[in-house]
Structure formats: structure tokens, C-alpha cells
Amino acid sequence: MNTNNRLRIAIQKSGRLSKDCQSLLKQLGIKLNLREQRLIAHSTNMPIDVLRVRDDDIPGLVMDGVCDLGIVGENVLVETQAERQRNQQPSEVTKLAKLDFGYCRLALAWPQELGIQDKDWFNGKRIATTYPEILKQYLEKEQIEASVVMLTGSVEVAPRAGLADAICDLVSTGATLEANGLMQGDTILESNACLIQNANLNDDDKLSLINKLMPRLRGVKQAKE
Length: 225
Ligand code: PRP
Ligand code: ZN
Ligand code: MG
Hints:
The strands form 2 sheets. This protein has a 6-stranded mixed sheet with strand order 2-3-1-4-11-5. Strands 8-7-9-6-10 form a 5-stranded mixed sheet. The two termini are 37 Å apart. By secondary structure, it is an alpha/beta fold. The chain contains 6 helices and 11 strands. Bound molecules: 1-O-pyrophosphono-5-O-phosphono-alpha-D-ribofuranose (PRP), zinc ion (ZN) and magnesium ion (MG).
């Protein structure tokens, strides 16, 4: 548990969501000095600390109460929840808001030269992914017997490197698939960034601070519409 009396928010240190997270915190009126390459940034005008970590670590930090809030893609949240449920670890969070950035799809893809393929093609194939839990649930549902190769990065080069026949990875603009000669297939999950809260948070000061921030968040979202 975060016994610190300052509200702790986990955001992605560097990656697709980090810029939007930083500007969201700014629009909420949270003043931060993020210039220093530090793990923790203390707000200068509110009792808030911002932790900058790998996106994959954010759901776990919030589920375990190390951080009170987190901004993370639904893709990472769903994957972590499935993994933790299987390991009987705490996996609950309170979803406070769906944010209007970070949209992407988790999709299957394979080498373009193979042409269009249907689901049956995947039987007996190896699929590389960073999202083994989500992929396995999909394969089970579709009754596809494929093996899953877990890679934490560079998934898009796996077919060319001979590590897998196909991949299941995030697609945003499609540039990565294009650059690697991959053709996009079925979407397994659609994802947006979301704001999550530790499910057992019961510190009155922190809860009232969150209650003060939420209308501002709604204001920011409305202003963009
Ligand atoms: C994803 C994915 C691709 C890229 C696709 O990585 O793994 O590398 O985005 O985007 P594109 O379709 O616009 O080319 P991301 O940076 O989201 O996640 P990661 O840093 O956690 O690997
Ligand atoms: Zn990641
Ligand atoms: Mg990537």
C-alpha cells in the first residue's frame, strides 16, 4: 500500500501514451517538473507524485496499491488482469475514465506474400505476441490450435527472423506492419488509454483530491469534443 500521504499517479515513461499523459496532467492543473529524468516527479502545487514507469508495470502497481492512480492502455490492463487472475493475485481496479487518446487495435498479422488467409490457416502455426493471455483466450474461443511465442518487444520482426509464422500486436497507424511487410487480419481487442484507481483506496484526503480532479477531467474531455 502507498502509505505516503501524497497521491501517487503512475504514467508511462516513454512511449505512445507518455506525451498525452503529460499534457493531461497539465490540463488538470497539476504542476510538475518533468524535465529531470527522474522516476518520481513531485507536483509543486498539489500533494501529488507522478511515477514514470514502463506501461506494462502500471496495472500491477495500481492493483497492489503501490500507486493510487494510473494511466494505461486497456490492452495492458486486460492482459495484466488475465495473468494475475490465473496466478490468483489481486487484479481488481476501479476504472475512473476512458480517455480520448491512445486508441489502437490488437490485431493478427502475417507476411504479405502469403496473401489473404482465414482463421483455419493459423492451426499449427506459431504466433509471436506481447499479449499471450489475450491471444490464448481468442485462440480458445475460435478453436484455433496455434502455439504462442512470447516476446516483450520487436514482435514485428519475428516472422522475418523465423521465430514465428505470424504475430498478434498493437496497430495504431499501421506504419509498423507496412514497414515490415505484414498484412493485417482480425482485430482481437480495441483499446484506449484509461484512468484506473486502486480498488481499495480509502484515504479520505486522497479520495477528496480525486473528487476534485474528476470534474476537471470531464471539462478537458468536453473541451476537445
Ligand atoms: C506498438 C506496436 C508497434 C507500434 C504500432 O508499440 O508494438 O511497435 O505500436 O504502431 P503503428 O501502427 O502506428 O506503427 P507501442 O509503442 O504501443 O508499445 P510498447 O512501447 O509497449 O511496445
Ligand atoms: Zn509496453
Ligand atoms: Mg512497440
